[in-house]
Specification:
- The chain is mostly beta strands and about 140 residues long.
- Helices cover about 10% and strands about 40% of the residues.
- It is built from 3 helices and 8 strands.
- A hairpin with a 2-residue loop joins strand 6 and strand 7.
- The radius of gyration is 14 Å and the shape is globular.
Amino acid sequence: MSGDVRAPRSYDRAALAKLPQKTVHVRYGSAKGPQQHTETGVPLASLLPADALATTKDKNDQLSFGVLGIGADGYRALVSYGEVSPDFGNRGILVAITEDGRPLAQPRLVVPGDVKGGRYVSNLVELKVVRVAGK
C-alpha cells in the first residue's frame, strides 16, 4: 500500500493468506465472454481501514480518496474509497489469492457487482492510494 496513506505497507501472498479471508461469487462480462468465479481473499477494507488514509479533519474526507490497483503488466484500475468503506458503499472489494479454489500466482483485485471485469486487476503488484479531490 503506497501513496496517500499514513504509513506504507507491503503484503506478499503468504502474508495475505494469514489474514481473515472472505469468499465471494462473481459474474461479469469480459472479452472472453461471460465469466463466473468464486474468489477468496482479504477484504480491501481490512487492508486499508479509514484511519490508514492521510485524511484531514474535513467532514467525510475519506471520500476524497481512490485506490489504484496496478498489475505487473502496468494495467491500472481505480476504485473509490467510498466503494471500499464499510460505512458507505461496502462493495466487498477483495484482494483475492484464490480463484475457483485454486491459488493465484499473484493476488487479484476483485470488484463484486461490476457488470464488466475491467476493474479486476490480475497479477496485482501495487495498491496506490490517491487523493482525487480536496483542497
